[in-house]
Amino acid sequence: MQSKNDKAIERYRFILIVMLVGALYILGRTIYTMLPPESDYWKEVGRNSKTATIPANRGNILSCDRQVLSGTVPKYALYMDFAVSDPDSVSKEKTIAFRDSAFRVDLDSIAEGLARIFPDRDEKWFRERLLQGKKRGKYSWRIYPKLATYVQYRACKELPFLRESMYRSGFHADEMLLRLKPYGGLASRTIGELYNDTSSRPKCGLELSFDSILSGRPGSKHYITMRNRKVPVVDSPAENGHDLLTTIDINIQDFADRTLRSKLKEELINGEIGVAVVMEVKTGDVKAIVNLTRGQDGEYYEMKNNAVSDLWEPGSTFKTASIMVALEDGKIDLNKSVDCAPGIVNMHGRKMKDHNWHRGGYGVLKVEDILGQSSNIGVSKIIDEAYGSNPAAFVDGLHREGVGIPLDLPFVGKGEPRVPNPRDKERYWSKPDLPWMSIGYVTMLPPISTLTFYNAIANGGKMVKPRFVKAELKDGMVVREFPTEVIKERICKPSTLRDIQYCLEHVVSGGLGRKAGNGGKYFKVSGKTGTAQFSENGSYAGRKYMVSFCGYFPSDDPKYSCIVCIKKHGLPASGGGQCGPVFSEISQYIMSRDSMRNAVAAADTNSVFVPEVTRGSRERAEAIVEGMGLTDKQLNTEEADSLPLNQVSDVLGMGVKDAVYTLQKRGLRVRISGCGQIVKQDMAPGSPATKGKTITLTAAPKK
Q1: How confident is the model at residue 642 (pLDDT cuts 50, 70, 90)?
Q2: Integer Cα distance of 238 and 249 in angstroms
């Protein structure tokens, strides 16, 4: 018998032999690698090593409720390798044999699956495409001409044969990162663009201004060629860009866009350019910014950020600033009267007219009616009498109010206000400049500067900078905030502000701005109309006009300010009559949306708030009430879907969302005018519901 020591020695001897064999094998492989032909192969690998940049995923631009306005989406170009390259002849033959056999067996299944994933091509097309690549024996044969989504690519990887590894099947994809806007052209010029689909180089808008945040930091990698294939080796990973949380409310943006677009298309408008901007009074947050330019096909597109970059003579919206200067300096009060007859006067050798000059003018007007009727003569007489001997004092007053202050907005190509000063030696100042300046000529402002001034009036005299971006996000978490910036704590004395606010409310309630309001039915609106003949190349010939309305709502406790501008050709031209209705629709939409009462906040220990339920879906109404903890309350709602699906429902009194849902279930196309509850439908309830037919609904806020 062997002793324990003898057994232990045998075990150690066996282990030593195994280790020696392993060492000899490694040494042999090393020597083999150092000698031709293997050494020649690895030298070629080293020579073919290439470095490349790993692009970082660009951050998303988000709306105020974190919906993606502009985002990076991966797309895939799909390929098949029908040729095999492998220095190992045995391995190459095995791969070729597997591909030939599996491809022949699974061809029909592959073609059928691809046709199901990409329905724009049929099974026959894919079968012929694959056979064509097989016949030619091509590397990287494109099997689908368009780019596939990630979901489509993964679906392809589930198909027979294609589910195998890239080296066995030859199926592979090249990933491309594309910048897409889910909401199309909405706020397109403000959001910005990249130069082309595959480039990360920004062209304009927030994409350009915040590129350092969005772009991230690229990484690096190098490729080595092994067995005739390029294999990537990562040297440093990419750091993805951060997201931007903007102030844009996509619902307000969409409504403002549709409303302005519809107005521009009206025959009497003949609009060339339309601008609409909605701003939150306290914060300066821009909730919507619409810039529409008519293309050669007659449709309207976002071609330029006109609200920020275009310098236009503001016209009569500037009269508010002029009157404010005179009130602030004590030159006038609201009891000041001006004789505006006969509607046309000589002002330093030039004729100053009111729009009703051919009817003899307005006669004697007080200050509130001078603004209410937008009298050129009334404003210019006040300013010329008060500052004619010292026009620089008037310009100083404008600057004191914040008119003409550069806003330093985050956009390349932004327009800088131009408010001429008599002290400027580079510009000749003539006597007529002051009166014409007072009514909105001579001075050049971008529309957003005019809105910023009116927003300050609504904000108790505090002027805040328009804000487009609220925060920088990483993985959904805020890493940096962009707070509201105050430009001027006070633009005028409280007494002056009260007088101006009174006058602006009067413009809508009793002046030319009536169409911007709602007749006082729902809430009060304040603002000022504007109509100016548009100069091009220093000439006012051609009868082009810039009409506008700028104001805020509700007058008693302002929440939002808004400006609507239309550049048009020919008469009629009326800021109140043409821009006012757009302002009115936007304001009513926002207020009806914001008037949704928070039942939880309204509840107290002494009373229970029971919401009034209008016509609509009983199921949805009961779910809402149950969520409010009012399950014992009885609802008296009329179910909207009581009629058969082949008949038109009675949707009067329903909300827009319920009405659209109810009618679309019957195959009808729905066109909506206004917002709030349905008050009119042009197809009688119970009439046949013909699929594809259009029904027009008229909605209005609940009284």
Answers
A1: low
A2: 32
